[in-house]
Design a protein that fits this description.
Ribosomal Protein S5, domain 2; elongated; 24% strand; Heat Shock Protein 90
Length: 592
């Protein structure tokens, strides 16, 4: 009978272990969370053979007393619940008692701990779920957990482990999540005796920790986010659409400090990026949502990676609007990251004359432009432009964020100089975004101005186009078009949206009719409205190979600085890049 009882206990323990310890990374996650809940300020992780041979996590947290060591390995035992409030409002990273017990059931585990007030440490061993009595150990204040030979007693599960490199990659990902969640804690990761990551605590510099984990390129391009409303707070770094990825491997979202992958949150984030990101690309972000612990259930999944919100709709809308607003920054927004390893090069002396000339581009906006900017790359000067009076000094504040245009390259790119170096602008992509945002604003106000054509444009059309025009004339008028059927196979364009008056009327009309036919009139003005407006903007934007004057180029730069989301075109491609003087110096091997 006792043998049956022992086998039964082992089976129960191994079933519980299967829920929590799917692979070495699962065990590492539980151990790291215990260290953070214990108040650790320094955590060191050592792995052998991807974690299959050894997982050791040592911390300087509160420690466990000698009397409680055996209890820490008992199933359903926890030190994280002391009242009913702890159950209803979970503030720790977890209170599931079987974590340590489940790990111990499928490994050779040694738990060593010492409280700060105790004279020395105590250690307890457990092999396959059978603990031995505590013995004196050697350890500074804190706790060390060694997990050796994972799945030694369950060979069927062990054979499903992947290669050492794969298992280590999963462990490193768990390590990165913990490190990103707590920049105030120092972390170290060793694998097979080699240091893989050494992260110093940076309590007040979360961007420094992000740069250390995900790279400075991400941190430099990311948008710093800080929004709060109705008991909800969202903060962190949202990656620029230009830093998008082919996979979701750089997406980190934390709810009250806990890393989660939640469908509701994922949908809100995806919708917020929809207007600035190509459909096949995925954004990168490190974001934190804080709310009342009682408003979220964190214990709906064995691995605690999913959550359930009391008011999911409100959380969805808050995340969507907060992130949309953060991503709506104009092209000239400053970078979020200003870490020690990234510093913009000091601007070299360059004087910009005062504004005076008017430039006008296809959106119908007049923008004041600087005089004297007609110098070509080879030093020749347009006879129309007077020699500017260059002041002795010019501060960085006098230079617009995107600078002033110098020239046009191959009819495609605008080259401009700002205080940091060279700015390269894709003029069609940039103007497309500007026109798109103007169209959205006009539609929101139901005020798309119509520009009658002096001479109507007629073209041969498919019968479907004529039918679409006859059925949806009112929708077309709301969009700023006046089209008239001349015959079953001919259409006349009598008016266009005023901000698209320079577009090819025939191509624009064909494209809009096709979209309305495909989407349906009601959807074209509601859920598919932005796709339709994007089509219109693409046809209305300045085309590649068109020669622009310097005032026109500068007009576009100023409009970009004032336009939301102008860092990306309607298809998610970047509209401009900055090359700093330091980067140019490096290219040409110039010394400091």
């Amino acid at each position: 009978m006792s043998a049956i009882r022992v086998l039964s206990d082992l089976l129960v323990n191994q079933i519980a272990a299967g829920e929590v310890v799917e692979r070495p990374a699962s065990a590492l996650k539980e151990l790291l969370e215990n260290s953070l809940d214990a108040g650790a300020t320094e955590i060191e992780v050592r792995l052998l053979e991807g974690g299959g041979k050894l997982i050791q996590v040592a911390d300087d947290g509160a420690g466990i007393s000698r009397e409680e060591l055996a209890l820490a390995l008992a199933r359903h035992a926890t030190s994280k619940i002391s009242s009913l409030d702890d159950l209803e409002q979970v503030r720790s990273l977890g209170f599931r008692g079987e974590a340590l017990a489940s790990i111990a059931a499928v490994s050779r585990l040694t738990l060593t701990s010492r409280r700060a007030q105790e004279r020395h440490a105590w250690s307890i061993g457990c092999e396959g779920g059978a603990p031995a009595g505590p013995e004196p150990g050697a350890l500074a204040a804190g706790t060390s957990v060694e997990v050796r030979d994972l799945y030694f007693n369950t060979p069927a599960r062990r054979k499903f482990l992947k290669s050492e490199a794969t298992e280590f990659a999963h462990c490193e990902e768990v390590f990165k999540r913990a490190a990103l969640s707590r920049p105030d804690v120092g972390f170290a990761l060793h694998h097979n005796g080699r240091v893989q990551r050494q992260l110093r605590a940076a309590p007040e510099r979360h961007d420094v920790r992000v740069a250390a984990v995900l790279g400075e390129e991400f941190a430099r391009s990311a948008v710093r986010l800080e929004q709060q409303a109705a008991g909800l707070r969202l903060w962190g770094l949202a990656g620029s659409p230009t830093f998008s990825r082919g996979t979701r491997d750089a997406q980190y979202f934390f709810v009250n400090g806990r890393f989660v992958r939640d469908k509701l949150i994922a949908h809100a984030l995806r919708e917020a990026y929809r207007d600035v990101l190509h459909q096949e690309r995925h954004p990168a972000f490190v974001l934190f949502l804080e709310l009342d612990p009682g408003a979220v259930d964190v214990n709906v999944h064995p691995t605690k990676i999913e959550v359930r919100f009391r008011d999911g709709r409100a959380v969805h809308q808050f995340i969507f609007h907060a992130l949309s607003q953060g991503l709506a920054a104009p092209a000239a927004a400053a970078p979020a990251f200003e870490g020690a390893s990234y510093q913009a090069a000091a601007p070299r002396p360059y004087a910009f004359p005062a504004a005076g000339v008017q430039g006008r581009l296809g959106t119908g906006l007049g923008v004041a432009q600087p005089e004297g900017f007609y110098q070509t790359l080879f030093g020749r000067r347009d006879d129309r432009a007077p020699e500017p009076e260059v002041p002795d000094t010019a501060g960085e504040a006098e230079v617009p964020p995107l600078g002033f245009a110098l020239a046009q390259l191959q009819g495609i790119y605008i080259l401009a100089q700002n205080a940091h170096g060279l700015v390269i602008v894709d003029m069609h992509a940039a103007h497309e975004r500007v026109v798109y945002e103007r169209l959205k604003a006009a539609m929101d106000q139901q005020a798309v101005a119509m520009q009658p054509l002096l001479i109507p444009v007629t073209f041969n059309a498919d019968r479907l186009d004529v039918t679409t025009l006859e059925e949806h004339g009112e929708t077309l008028r709301q969009l700023g078009f006046e089209l008239a059927p001349l015959s079953p196979t001919a259409i006349a364009v009598r008016a266009l949206p005023a901000m698209l008056k320079d577009a090819d009327a025939q191509q624009l009309a064909r494209a809009v009719l096709q979209d309305i036919r495909e989407f349906g009139a009601s959807r074209a003005l509601t859920e598919r409205r932005n796709e339709l407006l994007a089509t219109m903007a693409c046809h209305g934007a300045v085309r590649a190979s068109r020669a622009l004057t310097l005032p026109e180029m500068n007009a576009l730069l100023r409009e970009m600085e004032a336009t939301e989301r102008s860092g990306q075109c309607n298809h998610g491609r970047p509209t401009w890049f900055q090359l700093t003087l330091a980067e140019l110096d490096k290219m040409f091997m110039r010394g400091k």
